[in-house]
Amino acid sequence: MKTLVVWYSRKGYVREAALEKVKEENADFLELDSIDDDQGYDGFGNCVKSAIKKSAVVLFPYDTDVSSYDRVIICTPVWCGTVASPVRQFITAEKHNIKRAEYVIFHCMPTVCSAVADEMDKILRLKREKCTDIQCIFGKRIKEQDI
What we know:
Blueprint: E1 3-7, H1 13-25, E2 28-31, H2 40-53, E3 71-79, E4 82-83, H3 85-94, E5 101-107, H4 114-124, E6 130-137, E7 140-146
């Protein structure tokens, strides 16, 4: 099965887990990057605003043919209780090209984020095969569970 791991990581925490998945699954990978400023305090504010408004962001172009993969593992941070804007932009643009999906969701909240997984299912118009929920505080994984 040909697998693609896709992620966005503002601080590098999600990148670490995504690269573990790449190795574990012997998968190809795509790291998303937005042209919007997401660094420092101003960048954090931009991320909060785009998450609350669920507004579109502009991704740097990528040349990966997502439709050529049997399965896509999507790794995302949670921003303000929702999927990170760059990941939202990617799954919205690629929803017709993703056949099977799994999610890895990173957040700092003490409860699971099943609503974020449900939100991605709704955008992609499919039911995820698996979702791993990871509570992470400043890069340290506190709790990890499949939901």
